[in-house]
Structure formats: C-alpha cells, structure tokens
Amino acid sequence: MIPNILDSAWLVPAIMAASFLLILFFGKRLGTRATAGIGITAVSIALVLSVCVAGQWINRVNNPPTGAKLAADVIASNGLTPQTGRNILGEVIATTSESGETVAAGAGIRATSGESAMSGASSAAAVAEQAASEGSATEGEHGGEHGGEHESVPPIVHATTWFTVAGINFEVGTLVDGLAAMMLITVCIISLLVHIYSTEYLHGDIRFTHYYAFLSLFTASMLFYVLSSNTLQMLVGWELVGVCSFGLIGHWWEEKKNTDAALKAFLTNRVGDMGLIIGVVITFFAAGATSFNVLHINEYALGGQANTALLLVGALCLFGGVTSKSGQFPLHTWLPDAMAGPTPVSALIHAATMVVAGVYLIARLYAVFFTGLGIGSSSLHYVAFIGGFTTIIGGLLAFVQTDLKKVLAYSTISQLGYMVMALGVGAWTAGVFHLFTHAFFKACLFLGAGSVSHACHHTFDMREMGGLRKKMPITHATFLVATLALAGIFPLAGFWSKDEILAGANAGQQQAYTLMLIFGLITAFLTAAYMGRAYWMTFWGEYRGHAHPHESPKVITVPLIILSVCAVLFGFTNFPKSFFGLQLPGGVTTRFEHYVEPTFAFPPLQHAEFTPWLAVVSTILAAGGLFLAYQYYERNRGPHGLTQRSTVARAGYTFLENKYYLDVLYTDIIAADTKGPLARASYWFNMNVLDGVVNGLGTGARKIAGFVYRDIDQLVLDGIVNGSGSVSEKSGQILRHVQTGRVQQYAAILFAGAVVLAGVFVFVI
Q1: Which of these, 25, 43, 156, 548, could form a disulfide with 176 (CB 3.0-4.6 Å)?
Q2: What does the DSSP 8-state code read for residue 551?
C-alpha cells in the first residue's frame, strides 16, 4: 500500500529545513564531505518525494474524486469544516449526465463569467450529504469511467491554526495541485544538481559549511513558499527566500562589490515587497476579511459580487512584489549584480527559485489578476505591457556585456518578462510552461559558464576566452544545446514554450495583444543574437586567455549533461494537439496543460491553438539572429567600429552600457540625495532644532533649579525652619526664668491659671 504523499507534502520542505539545522550545528565538526553529503542526501529525498507527489497528482487527475470525497476536498480547500460550512463559497454536486459520465458542477470548482462563487449550498454538511448520496450511486454504476480531459479536480489542502486574532483563525498549511507539484520537481532537480556541482566548484572554500547551510535553507524556503495554502504564509516564504539570497549573493563578503551586490538585491526587493504586503492586505479585506486562503481569494475574485476596482488595486500592489523579485522593469537592476555570488547560486537563483517566485505568485493568484486587470477583455494593460517591455530592455542590455554571467543575467530578465507577458495576455499555461522549460536550459547555461570559468582561471570575461570547443567538448556541447533551446530552435524545449506564448499573444482569449506579439517576436530575434554572440566569443576562434583550459571533472559535467537532456525532452510534455497537420492521440498531447493548469477556483481560459505561421516566423527570426552573430563575431563581417564612426551609434551604445542610467537614478540621485542634501538637512535640523530644544530645556531646568534653591529652599523653607528654631529657643529662655524652684511662686501661677480657666467657663460657655 503506497502512502498518500499528497497529504504529507509538508515533508518536502521540512526535510530541507532539517538539513539546514544539521549542517548549521554539526557541519564544521563533521567536515566538508559530510556537510555536502547531508545536503545532497536531503535534497535527493525531497526530489523522490516530489516525484511521488507528481505521480499521485497525475493519478488523481486521471481518477478524480467523487461523492463525499469530492465534497470533503472542496470544503478543505476553502479552509472550512462541516460545522462552519455555511460560509462555503461554492457548491459541488456529483451528478450523472445523460451520457452516463460523471461530471462535477458548481461555481466552487471552476467559476464562469457571470457566475457568483457565493452561490451554492447553504452549508458544507448539506453539500457533503448530497454529494455523498448522489456520488455513491454514480461510483457504483460508473466507476472508472470518469476522468475526462476537462473534469474539475480540487487541490489537496491541509491546514492548521497558526494563531487567532479577534476571533479569526489564521492558518498554516499546504496546497497541492499540478502547479505545486511541477514547481516541487523543478526546484528539487535544479537544487540537487547545484548541490552536487558545488562540491567541486567551492572545494576548499573558507565558508563551505556556511554555503551549504544557506543552500539547504534557500531550497526549503522556496519549497515552503510553493506549497503555501494562504497568502500570509506565502509572504513568509517570500521573505525567507530573500534573506537566503542576501547571504548567498554576499558569500564572498571580503570584496566590497559582493557586499554591495547583496545589499542592492536586498534593498531593491524591499521596495517591491512593500507593494506585496499592501496587496496581501487588500485581497484579505476584499474577500471578506475572514481568511488569507488562496482558493478563497481566487473564488471571491471570480464571483459576480467581486469589487473589480479593489481587485485592480490589489493586483497592481501584488505586482510590485513581482516587479522586484522577478526582475521586471524598472526594479530589475539588482539581478545582474547578483552575479557576484558563486556561480551555482546564480544558477539556482536565476533558474528555479528566487526570480520565478514572482511569476509563481501571479500564477497562483491568477483569478485576482484576471478579474482585476480584465485579462482577455482589453488589448493592453499594465502587467502585460511591463512584461513585454522587460523582454526588450533585458535583451538589448545583454549585447553590451563582456561578462558571460551577466549576459545570462540579462537574458533571465528578458525571459522573465516573457513569462509575465504570457500571464498578462491570458496564456497561463504558456507562461508556466516557459517557467518550467527555462529553468533547465538556463541552469545548464549558468553551470556551463561556471565550468568555463573553472577552466579559465576563474574569469568570466569573454574577451579572454575563445576556441574552448576543442578543449572542453562536453561543456561546449551542453552549452550549445542550452543556447539553441533558449533561442527557440526546433525541436528543443524553448521552441515549444516560446511558440505557445506568441500564439497566446496573437489570440489567446479571442483578444489579440498585438503590441505584445510584436515584443515577443523582437525578443525571439534578440535572444538568438545575443546568445549567438556569447557562444561564438566563448567557444570559437582562438583562445585569448592566459590559463591552460581543460575539461572540467565529471562532478561538474554530469549535471550539465542531465540539464541539456532536459532541455531537449521537456518541451514535448506539452506537444500541441495539431502540429503542421500532424494529429497525435489526445492522451499524449498537451499533458502539461492537462495536469498542471488548475481547474478549481480558476478562470475559464481559452487556449490558443498551434499557429504554424508564427512558429515559422519566430524560427526564422531566431535562426537569423544566430546567423548574424556568426557573421559578425566569427567571420568578422559587418560594421565593426561603428561606434567610433557614428555619433548616434556611440550614443546608443553608451546608453546601453550605462544600463539606461537607472543605476545613476537610484544610486547617484535618489540614494545620493538621501546621503547628501537630505542628510545635511537632517543634520541641520538635529543641531539647530532638536539640540536647541534639548539645550533650551536644559538651560530652563538649570534656571528653575537655581530659583528653587535660592528663593524657595534657602529663603522660604530654611527661613521657616530657622525661625521655628529661634522661637523655640526664645520660648525656652522665657520658660527657664519662670522655673525658679520656689513653691510659693508655682502655687501662685497655678492659682492664676485656675482663675483664667474659670473665667473661660463663665463667659464663654
């Protein structure tokens, strides 16, 4: 009996968190080999569990739950129990259609336009009873016949109370569906290969234990984020990923540029995170201020009673976090500087973890963006435009880089823009599919760059490379495969995901995003051209360096081979239903879409079909970009020295070389003004206002103290005390003369007193 790992998915991030603690407390005592072994073993187990999660999810999609099980899953997905089921946002009723097939209906599964997610059963218990009674008959008569291509399957949600405020229970839990399963596998594969690769790349590093501890925590944080069932929990994972990236980017903190890069990444992300926090708060209150539950928020967004204006503001605030974390214009400037960290870290950050966290956020809360931005109902909106624009600006900046890793960094910015643009035009599956394929060929490219650096005396300057294809055949072959995949050359993985994005921009929701399509086609050409430039400069021509390059050891080349194979094969996981007239059985086409795209609390998307003319045009553009790069950098043909001859060309090159002057704006104007005039103004205010107030209070207190001492204490209080003493002394002197010792005198005084007392009684009383 195979255990249901879908109910225990929390073990995946927990194992990596345990690895972090073990390495942190015992790593230095055990030595570097044991430290690496702990990390590799942990991520290997996490990968096996992730594969089990994916396998069981596929089985769940092929055999969807019915009856009471279906109702229970729907209730759990909303974070409810039968006792609190009266607040359920959808209705799930298992019925039998006329054809005898089991179908699932209700707004709580897949909301359609004009359908309120607030409609449905009056209580979760009633839903469970009705579904159980009808579903049991269905299962008895038609067991095994369900599982159609478009049947709705609720995710597996398990949550427990985290804390309670004002009677509202805030939960922590896991949400497992196709999207989460895909991300688990992607993160674990890349992380495992990075762990293995790092044993050689960071061999002998002074902070080897520190590095592996952060690597485990980084992986655990991303896995925790991916499995989060609510936005508050996602926020925690989001920030943990940011903290880990800070530590890994600044791993070699002895060099100031590395610490500067880490601080830049950390602070830039904090700017966007302010928007993210506000967006989380807005969506919480918009959905009734009862739960941060992701599905609850998505269902509200799809309901007919949703406040679209509030959702628009919430979506744009959430996108602020996406802008910084996923390197979208204008907060992309931190990402190339992050190359200061070790190369395996760059591969992990830029392929499968930190930078795709923002893309995952849009995909997970897609109903909010879909409704708030009116995706599919307009030809342009902010998110789609920023994504498309980022593809262009990132691609152009890659042309003026001489550092191989920075070429790949700007390529990542451009490809992240591709993903965001796809989600913005309604091509959800295409955007997430590109996230999936891009992770493997981009990780291959980064680790390939590390292999080249490892052989070329730790330099990434392409001007000191060349001719390495003969000296490093495995690195060269894998780098070439990944380059062609990134360029979108058939039949590699990048071709399929890029083509889906372009088709979606053309008419994904029966609404052409013409400008986005143009951006996408331009980027197809730019990507091939700048990657061709990097490839020719690195592996062709004559070697221009001073080291003696040689092929890297197997611990480096084997991960490269694995990633290059993934870059070849994984594109076929979403093979179109029709490819230039070729019709394949439905059971082998669009598998990625079938298993990964949500069917619960998800907008009704229309998927673009394979478009032959777009595939041909984009392939020609990509091939043209590679050919022009070959002619210019290998054959030495073209307008060389143009920047010296043309003022316009020189100005354009300078503009790109200075990265659109955004760093000047942020560093020399905003930051400098903070440290310069604003700092001086603050100093003046401190010295003249705050210190004046403090000094004035001190002077006033001193004068008041002098007055109290001199006039009140010395004259009044001391005068009273001294006067009472003098009176007592004089009274004593008088009384001393009365006491003579004569009895007759005392008797006379006593008689006089008696007379006075008698007079008082007579005249007064």
Answers
A1: 156
A2: P
Quick one: which of 719, 715, 695 has its CA closest to 707? 715
HSE-CB at 109 with a 13 A cutoff on CA atoms is 21
Peptide bond just before 491 cis, omega within 30 deg: yes
Burial class (CB in 10 A: 0-12, 13-18, 19+), 140: exposed
CA distance 170 to 164: 6
Using CB atoms within 10 Å of the CB of residue 267, give its burial: 0 to 12 exposed, 13 to 18 middle, 19+ buried: middle
Of all helices (H) and strands (E), which one includes residue 275?
Answer: helix 256-286
Long-range contacts of 33-39 (CB under 8 A, 24+ apart): 35/208, 35/209, 35/212, 36/195, 36/198, 36/199, 36/208, 36/212, 38/212, 38/216, 39/195, 39/212, 39/215, 39/216
Instruction: Report whether pLDDT(22) > 80.
Output: yes
Q: What's the average model confidence in pLDDT over 28-51?
A: 94
Tokens 């059971």 sit at which residue? Answer: 587
Query: Tens digit of pLDDT for each residue in 560-591?
Result: 999 999 999 999 999 998 888 788 877 788 89
Segment 372-395 shows an average pLDDT of: 90
In 3D, which of 314, 435, 447, 451 has the Cα closest to residue 383? 314
Q: Kind and range of the H or E element at 702? A: helix 691-707
**pLDDT of 87:** 43
Distances 241 to 23, 198, 237 between C-alpha atoms, Å = 18, 19, 6
- Is 533:399 a contact under the CB 8 Å cutoff? yes
With the CA atoms of 314, 315, 317 and 321 taken in that order, what torsion angle do they form, in degrees rounded to the nearest 10?
A: 140
At what angle are helices 357-364 and 208-227 packed, to 10 degrees? 10
Question: For tokens 């043909």, what's the residue?
Answer: 637
User: What letter represents residue 627's amino acid?
Assistant: F
Residue 535 · residue 633 · CB < 8 Å: no
Query: In this structure, are residues 610 and 501 in contact, taking their beta carbons and an 8 Å threshold?
Result: no
What gap in Å lies between CA 473 and CA 467, rounded to an integer?
11
pLDDT in tens, 304-357: 888 999 999 999 999 999 999 999 999 999 999 989 889 999 999 988 788 999
Confidence of residue 132 (pLDDT cuts 50, 70, 90): very low
Residue showing tokens 């802008």? 323
- Strand-pairing partners, residue 172, are 160
Q: Rounded to an integer, what distance in angstroms lies between the CA atom of residue 539 and that of residue 100?
A: 62
In this structure, which amino acid lies at residue 17? A
* Concatenated DSSP letters of 221-248: HHHHHHHBSBHHHHHHHHHHHHHHHHHH
Number of C-beta neighbours around residue 659 at 10 A: 16
Which element (helix H / strand E) includes 578?
strand 578-579
Distances from the Cα of 68 to the Cαs of 56, 136, 137, 351, in angstroms? 20, 8, 11, 41
Q: Helices 554-569 and 428-455: crossing angle, nearest 10°? A: 160
How far is 291 from 646, CA to CA, in rounded Å? 61
Position of tokens 């002895």?
254
Cβ burial, residue 649 (10 Å; 0-12/13-18/19+): middle
Token pair of 302, please? 């799809």
Contact between 320 and 402 under an 8 Å Cβ cutoff? The reply is no
DSSP state string for 70-107:
HHHHHHHHTT--GGGGGG-S---EEEE-TTS-EEEEST
Q: Mean of the pLDDT values across residues 363-384? A: 89
- Looking at residue 735, its pLDDT comes to 61
DSSP structure class, residue 433: H
Measured between alpha carbons, how far is 331 from 328 in angstroms, rounded to an integer?
Answer: 6
